[in-house]
Amino acid sequence: MDVENELSQGGMEMAAFIMTESHEFITNLLSYLPAKCLCSCARVCKSWHKISQRLIKNRHEMSWSCVNGLEDNTCMLPSGDSQAHPMATFEVDLNECLKTMSSIPKHALLFTEFLSWKESAKFNGSQSNASSRGLRELTDIVRSKLPEGCTLLSLHTPGTFGTKRDLKLLEESESEGGISCLLLPEMENVRILQFSSTTNHSKELKKKYPQELMTEICGGCAADEVKCILLFGGMSHHNCQWTAETLQKAFYQELGKVPVIAGALVRKVKTTEPLSVGGLVFSGANVQAASVLLNEFVSTKADIKRQLAPLKNLNLEKGRRTIGFMFACIGRGLNHYCEENVESQVFRECFPDTPLFGLFGNGEIGRENLTLMEDTKSYKLPEVVHGYTTVVVLISIK
């Protein structure tokens, strides 16, 4: 019996040594865990904390949650109501996404056709005049699920573009209860900055010189490091248009070239309060971005493929992580093509491994920009705000 006890005690001591001192074994063991589990493991002991933090720091994978209300309406309301509800489905999917995500998200971009978590499942997207309280409720609930320090920009839109996490399904939702949330972690040599402006703040910005506006929105980033600005206007479409045009002018005056500036005019933009203008800035040596514009004369799949060809020829997907954004006029989609999911399907054919996000809005911001911030000798500043068009953006991260 004593021998067995000694062997048992010796085995436990060896196991304790391996689990606390064998860094190679611990690293290999913890490397299989998602980020949320690693955060719990970091509280076990100093050794696990150090290894967990190192593993998290070296992970840079983005993730996302996407639900099409009418098709994915399969879960129950958090309240226990027996009626299925698309927002409840999104809550379940977002929880699963955060649970299994290998990285810790630092920025979240939410596209939603819903204002309130408890709206009727029969909501058909027509409640454009709903109070800001509804959006605040949804934003606060989503924020409560995100890790501390993660920024959230919420866009209430008439329609959405979204991609399932397995990349097998990419579709458009036009007043069907669509909602998607893109989660972006910290990435090496990549800086993502959220900016926002209330109506009063926008009035103050208009008193500044273009370079001052550029410096404030870009958060002090060197101008030549800025590769893409996603810009959205909510309460005041005029402020958003002015911001887009002034930014384009400021970059051209400063550098003789312009980063991708793209986005849309939507129903509401919100961080912690309703905004006049909000968005995200992507900068850094490991970022590249380009965009194309599908005008009102693009009306067939062949036309779309032809317009996307120059974007594809840049080979931004090759060996890099890519994100696609599509900002379309509410008049396009089914009404324009007499067929569902046309533009998103052609995008998938051209970029099969790139997730696509975006929205249908009340005006589109963007233009063809395929320079990748290279110098251009001959350059003319084109219009940057349009109607009845679709702006397609591709962001590539090394």
What would you report as the Rg, rounded to the nearest angstrom? 23 Å
Largest beta sheet: what is the strand line-up?
A: 1-6-2-3-10-11
Q: State the distance separating the first and last CA atoms.
A: 60 Å
Biggest β-sheet, characterized? 6 strands, mixed
Q: What are the low-pLDDT stretches, counting only 5+ consecutive residues below 50?
A: 76-83, 120-131
- Average pLDDT, to the nearest integer? 84
What top-tier CATH class of the domain at 2-57 fits best? Mainly Alpha
> Tally of extended strands?
18
CATH architecture of the domain at 2-57: Up-down Bundle
The helix/strand series, from N terminus to C terminus, equals HHHHEHEHEEEEEHHEHEEEEEHEHHEEEE
Cα shape: globular
- Total DSSP helices: 12
CATH topology name of the domain at 2-57, in short, is Monooxygenase
Strand content: 25-35%
- SS-based class: alpha+beta
> Which percent bin holds the helix content?
25-40%
Describe the protein's topology:
Layout: H1 2-21, H2 23-30, H3 35-41, H4 46-57, E1 63-67, H5 86-100, E2 105-112, H6 132-145, E3 151-156, E4 159-163, E5 170-174, E6 179-185, E7 191-197, H7 199-205, H8 210-217, E8 226-233, H9 237-255, E9 260-265, E10 268-270, E11 274-275, E12 277-283, E13 287-294, H10 301-312, E14 321-329, H11 334-337, H12 342-350, E15 356-361, E16 364-365, E17 385-386, E18 390-397
Parallel strand pairs: 2-3, 8-9, 14-15
Antiparallel strand pairs: 1-6, 2-6, 3-10, 4-5, 4-15, 7-12, 8-12, 9-16, 10-11, 13-18, 14-18, 16-17
Helix pairs in contact: 2-4, 3-4, 8-9, 10-12
